[in-house]
Structure formats: structure tokens, C-alpha cells
Design goal:
It is a single chain. The protein starts with a helix and ends in a 12-residue tail after the last helix. It is flat, with a radius of gyration of 21 Å. It has two domains: 120 residues, Up-down Bundle (Four Helix Bundle (Hemerythrin (Met), subunit A)), CATH 1.20.120; 39 residues. Helices cover 71% and strands 0% of the residues. The longest helix is centred in the middle third of the chain and has 26 residues. It is an all-alpha fold.
Length: 171
């Protein structure tokens, strides 16, 4: 499992660096998905199966959908954005495909060839997580939901088209 841990962590670091240096938001989003999936692989290799599953469901699923909506809503048209037919070229998919293939092969190796190794740890189910989130950390959960809602309102305000009217003209 150490080999899988190191492979997933290297893929996470590389894809996170590519997420930061990309000029196009769609490229960056694709590398971010690979980064989040590789972090889930790190959780799985450490024996934190519930945290890995939450990483896939919440971050690689729901948060990425939110990012896609924000990118669509902002509708940024600058010189770094590509047309739709450019996404079909093979050069767009080389980097993410290589990182995804490395991640897939390491997970396949861990599933099929490391069956004899056992991981010791405390089994945490969703009830324990729910009781902890809505018990002593209820205020933090509610504050983070208000923060996300306010960020969405700001994005809607920034992303809308501004129309300026002349004050002298009557409507």
C-alpha cells in the first residue's frame, strides 16, 4: 500500500500544479478533478475509506459541478478560452489522460494484488460523522453554508451583464 500511497500523492501534486498554472479554466477544472480523485486514493491507501468516499462524492462530484456552473455563468471570453472544437483535439487530453491512467493502474494494483494486506483502523460510519457535524460543530457548518451562499451571490452579481443607462434619456 505504500507504493499506491506514493503514486497517488505524486499524481495529486503534479495535477495540482497543473491546476494552478493553467490559463484556461476548463483545463484547470480537468486537472482539479484528477487531483481530488488522487487525494481520495491517498485516503483509501491510508485506510480512511469513509473520508475517501466523501472526497469522491462531495468534492470530485458536487463541488466540481458547482465550478462548472460558475464557469458557465461567468462566460469569460478572453484570448485564453478555446472554441468547442479545440476540446476534441488529442493534445487537450494527453496530460489528464496520462495522470488518470497512472491513477487507475495504481488503484487496480491495490484492489487486485494487495488483498492479503489488512489495514487497521477505526471504522467510522455516517451516523458518527453526522452527530459530530451537527453536535459541537453545528455553528461552523452553518457559517460555512452561509459563506458558500454569499460566494454564489457575489458570482451572480459579478457574472451578470452590466447595462448602463444614460441619466439624461428617459426610458
Amino acid at each position: 500500500m505504500e507504493l499506491v500511497f506514493y503514486i497517488c500523492s505524486c499524481v495529486a501534486v503534479i495535477s495540482t500544479i497543473f491546476t494552478i498554472i493553467q490559463k484556461n479554466a476548463v483545463y484547470s477544472l480537468l486537472y482539479l478533478i484528477i487531483s481530488l480523485l488522487s487525494i481520495a486514493g491517498v485516503f483509501f491507501s491510508l485506510g480512511a475509506f469513509f473520508a475517501g468516499a466523501l472526497e469522491v462524492i462531495i468534492y470530485a462530484g458536487a463541488i466540481i459541478v458547482l465550478f462548472v456552473f460558475v464557469i458557465m455563468m461567468l462566460n469569460v471570453n478572453d484570448k485564453h478560452n478555446l472554441e468547442e472544437e479545440n476540446y476534441l483535439k488529442y493534445t487537450f487530453w494527453i496530460g489528464p489522460s496520462i495522470l488518470s491512467l497512472i491513477l487507475f493502474s495504481s488503484m487496480t494494483y491495490a484492489i487486485f494484488f494487495l488483498k492479503t494486506k489488512k489495514i487497521d483502523g477505526l471504522l467510522i460510519n455516517s451516523k458518527i460523522v453526522g452527530v459530530n457535524l451537527f453536535g459541537p460543530y453545528m455553528l461552523l457548518v452553518e457559517l460555512s453554508s452561509i459563506l458558500l451562499l454569499s460566494a454564489l451571490v457575489v458570482v451572480c452579481h459579478i457574472g451578470r451583464e452590466k447595462k448602463y443607462f444614460n441619466k439624461n434619456k428617459s426610458l
